[in-house]
Amino acid sequence: MLVPLSWLKDYVDINVDPKELEKKLFSCGFEVEELTEVGKDISKVVVGYVEECEKIPDTHLSLCKVNVGEEELLQICCGADNVKAGGKYPVALVGATVYATAKDHKTIEGVMTIKKGKLRGYESFGMLCSGVELGVSENMYPGAGYNGLLVLPEDAEVGADVKPILGLDDWIFDIAITANRPDCQSIFGIAREVAAVLGTELHEPALTYTETEVKKEGFQVSVDAQDICPRYIAHYVHDVKIGESPAWMKRRLALVGIDAISNVVDITNYVLKELGQPMHAFDCSYLEGNEIRVRRAEEGEKIVTLDEKEFTLNPSNLVICDGVKSVALAGIMGGLNSEIRDTTTEVMFEAAKFARDNVRKSSRALGQSSDSSARFAKGVDEYTTVMAMKRALHLMEELGCGKVSSTHLDVNTGNSIQPVEMKISVEKVNQVLGIQVPDEEIIRILENLQFAPVISGNELTIQVPAFREDVEDYPDIAEEVIRMYGYDHVTSTFMPTARVTTGGMNTRQKTTLKVKEALCSAGAYEGIHYSFFSPSDLDLLNLPEDAKERHAIRIMNPINEDLSLMRTTLAPAMIHAIARNQKKGTLEGRIFEMGSIFLPKELPLTEYPDERETLCIGVFGKEESFYTLKGLAETVAEALFVNFTYEPAQKTYLHPYQTASIHCNGQEVGYLGKVSYEIQDSEDMRTSAYILELDMEALSQWYGITPVFTPLPKFQEEKRDLALVMDKAVTCGQIEDCIKESCNYVKSVELFDVYEGKQIQENQKSMAFTVLFTPKEEEFTANAVDGFVKKILKNLDRKLNVTLRS
């Protein structure tokens, strides 16, 4: 927020320089992002009086003799068409710095230093300046917009610095206002803080005005949606004379980035910046039905705002209406059909409090923002709403641009704008701070902040001003005390339950890191996606309506519809990531993400959802396959020192014959499979994709397993290759389990071939395994190994009807 020092001084006596004030503001919680001297690039520019002015023959130049307060007159060549003898203009002396302009004399191109020069054979010792060369606009100083010399007042002292005359000796503070202090989003709000931190008196802006006996007969205001508009004030002003605002008001608006429009509109903008209350003025000649009604918009209702944009509304939007039509989008922008025009003679001023969440949602949904919506979105209090209306009416009377009638309507829910008494414990305040702040300091600080404190024993009684809606209990008062008392008073101490530790990672962190490192070693790259997804992502997976993944938590105020649900699976984000890579020419890769999914126990939420850590792996490319992905699953199992088993499974978004569920010690912990062709086509994938999801929360019960050392065998290990014939429904995992159960000497079983063809019956397949036998106490004999094989084949035949391929 921009705060000019000159404007700030209207309300508080400032006895420190701008740099020191910047430090003071920072010490009490207000970061000055930038402190700018308005005329920092302008130097050695003084008031000059042209005593003589003669045209140089055959040129557009004039040769001037200029008095700059020195003994000798300066000779300056000038090409401006408005230079004349007897005029006072800014003079840039030799060595001065001013702004260099383009050929159009309107665009600034940098800073230049004035040097002694010669034009058409005549020496020139300086330069007579225009407004643009001094960085001054028409709104900053009258006449500065003219493409010629800037004319100074007749009473300007010759030789005096022009900066104070043009307002270039000012400073602008760009202050960051935190979300919990909406009361400070105005010049006067910052003035309250400055008065408190400097311990000086605060001067309130003038609020008085005189009402005439004129009334707007029969005029009514009604609020149908008081839940989002708790206060609405309207006041009628007649005999309005539209014209320019005074120079002082235009200059102040220019310093905070607002162009002057007309006196009535400028007053509403001035009050917005001064007090932080957005206001609006309606041309009464365009208000039909002699009333104002605040209501929710109807479905499909349309409005055209002041910037000539048309919007289609719905009941979540709040509108201001007359007796016939909507005339403003509440809290955001007025309607084009009731704007102030040159012909306006009567005005209805509006000041209101609108619910911050409603304005924020409407502004975001419609893609329409303004200074008003930004203020309402942060919060406006009713105390300021009442104060702002008085201030606007005072300015109307002060500037002579209208007469204030006695028609004043204030529709509210009964909220008081008087201070609220609060009693708190001094001891609790000090406990929050961890130090003992003297009672007299607490009294001094809270008096400066307008809390009217009284301490009686351990009890602190305060009167919380209505504009401090952020103050609710003793922790808030503790914050007010310490930011003014000084954070340097806080001493570093341990919390009562604190303890010194050696640091390091816990078991969960170590295991998670180990899994990630194992996957990286296998050629996978880690990815991170948003914790939100779109309802369309669930449709992408072809999930049925009763699928648990569709039981998702909806965000109350999402950035957009694509990020409106808390994710219940990592699969959609991984599929999109694979598709994005392929569209950008990366046709092969391995990606994994370790993140949380959010599973509600019931909707709407009554308790925190189950936040489960989940691992998702995606692989794609011509060289990748179902078994590549299974190998990555085994990599995870090895990192955890557990064994996975696999069973056929079905997923709506995976290939029906290349999908398996993953089990650990009999518990299902995930799945893996090939992405269906339908999804691959819809995502424009050029190579096949495979994904895997593991419930790491379920696997966490096996975190921290310590591997048991097994000494190397004393005797030679033996291998046997077995080509087996079986029904197509029999899985690799079933074969491996059966082989391991058949013999205690089996160390590993590895599949190396799968065959289906002419030599095998149509409903059967052949799978070939390498079985490794490891001896324990004595060396194997050929007969012993043959016996192990016979036992395995017998068990396979009995349990799975599997035979040795001939």
Tell me what the structure shows.
The chain has about 800 residues and is an alpha+beta fold. About 25% of the residues lie in helices and about 30% in strands. Strand 6 and strand 7 (about 110-115) form a beta hairpin.
The gist of it:
By secondary structure, the protein is an alpha+beta fold. Helix content is about 25%, strand content about 30%.
Mean pLDDT: 92
The number of E-state strands comes to 38
Distance between the termini: 86 Å
Low-confidence stretches: none
In this structure, how is the largest beta sheet organized?
7 strands, mixed
- The fraction of residues assigned to DSSP E strands is 25-35%
Helical/strand content category: alpha+beta
Q: Can you list the strand order of the major beta sheet?
A: 26-29-30-34-33-32-31
Specify the number of helices.
20
Helix content: 25-40%
Whole-number radius of gyration?
Answer: 40 Å
Specify the overall morphology.
Answer: elongated
